[in-house]
From TrEMBL:
Signal peptide: none annotated. This is cysteine-S-conjugate beta-lyase. It comes from Jonesiaceae bacterium BS-20. NCBIfam families: C_S_lyase_PatB (TIGR04350). Its EC number is 4.4.1.13. One of its GO terms (molecular function) is pyridoxal phosphate binding. Transmembrane segments: none annotated.
Length: 391
């Protein structure tokens, strides 16, 4: 029996519902691969948000009052309590600056906190909107390619060289998208020391922080020695609870002077008030959504194991990179001898839509990213199509 059949809180979203809602993932997949397509691309889920969140949003809507608002003390309390209980990270309400979306905030932050034409270090392969945001700010993306020996690691010598050449900031992603690495405290500490030595700003995108495989531990960047003076952490309940469309992200900035600059940056970009439903959704998710998330994580553990085992048996030419976090799998297809374009064409021809590795830039060639946040039966069908297309 599939774990989704045993779950009590996870409720699949029907394809028809996704289509009616004009889901980006499903709209693009159906256009690219036909009405029978399976969409395992964009990083959102085919599971309804926790019922406590749905109820909270419905109650807010029933008031009929959609005026401009401030965030409540309960909002800040829910964020602080979640990270303390879930990750042992103690933050205060005063350290939080809320914004709609991480990728909206990045250009504003870089314009305010770095010099014109500054070099910004981005680890590659990279989540595409990050280098796009850097370019939008008028800054230069400097690629820091992760080393790879079957698992991804920081190339610290390369980072030191880039910082010595004048790079002003580093944008980290932890857990890393697309590779699924969860950087250890030791790895991050070495980055923090180099950043401090070169007076570089660190922006740590931690929106996948809650999505860990069993046995993994998330280390918030701001808990490191040398980190608080010149670092910003970006967090959100969006990935954890499938709330991306509600648009709520929280920047944690312990340094008060830096926080004043961050606040000024987002206000200058036009962000003055929270998204109306995002506040109550966040409170409900962080206060009562833990059991829902735990069920999701158990299912994702199962899905990682399922794909890994099936491909090892049926298509061993494709290597599943060990996934420590996120609900995404990074698939190494290089031994198939096919270009990324050809890989994608074969998969689309089978009615299967993944994200091509080239979408993540340097180091993504001949890789594919697979979204596992779908019902098990759908994933099993997707595996069959994947194997058939690439055998």
């Amino acid at each position: 029996m599939a774990l989704i059949d045993q779950a009590t809180l996870l409720r699949p979203i029907a394809r028809e519902t996704q289509r009616a809602a004009r889901s980006i993932r499903w709209t693009e997949a159906l256009a690219a691969a036909g009405d029978d397509a399976i969409a395992l691309s964009v990083a959102d889920m085919d599971f309804a948000a926790p019922q406590v969140v749905i109820d909270a949003v419905a109650r807010r809507a029933q008031t009929g009052n959609f005026s401009y608002t401030y965030l409540s003390p309960e909002f800040y309390q829910s964020v602080c309590q979640w990270f303390s209980a879930r990750h042992g990270w103690d933050i205060t309400a005063e350290q939080i600056v809320s914004v709609g979306r991480v990728v909206e905030a990045l250009p504003a932050l870089l314009r305010r906190l770095t010099t014109p034409s500054a070099k910004i270090v981005v680890p590659y392969p990279a989540y595409g909107p990050i280098p796009t945001a850097v370019a939008a700010s008028g800054r230069e993306v400097v690629a820091w390619q992760l080393s790879f020996d079957g698992q991804y690691r920081f190339d610290l010598e390369a980072l030191e060289t880039l910082l010595a050449q004048g790079a002003e900031a580093i944008i980290l992603t932890n857990p890393h998208n697309p590779t699924g690495r969860v950087w250890t405290g030791s790895e991050l500490s070495k980055v923090a020391k180099l950043a401090a030595a070169h007076n570089a700003l660190v922006i740590s995108d931690e929106v996948h922080a809650d999505l860990l495989r069993t046995g993994q531990t998330f280390t918030p960047y701001l808990t490191l020695v040398d980190a608080e003076a010149s670092a910003i952490a970006l967090t959100s309940p969006g990935k954890s609870f499938n709330l991306a469309g509600l648009e709520i992200a929280n920047m944690v900035v312990p340094n008060p002077d830096l926080r004043a600059e961050v606040t000024a940056a987002v206000q200058a970009a036009g962000s003055h008030n929270p998204r109306f439903f995002a506040e109550v959704a966040t409170i409900a998710a962080y206060s009562e959504g833990g059991p829902w998330l735990d069920e999701l994580l158990a299912l994702m553990d199962h899905h990682v194991g399922l794909v890994t085992q099936e491909l090892a048996t049926r298509l061993p030419q494709v290597t599943v990179i060990p996934a420590e976090g996120t609900y995404l799998l990074w698939l190494d297809c290089r031994t198939l001898g096919l270009s990324t374009e050809k890989l994608n064409q074969k998969l689309l021809g089978s009615g299967l839509v993944l994200t091509p590795g080239t979408a993540f830039g340097l180091g993504g060639e001949e890789f594919m990213r697979m979204n596992l946040a779908v019902p098990t039966q759908m994933l099993e069908t997707a595996i069959d199509r994947f194997v058939t297309a690439l055998q």
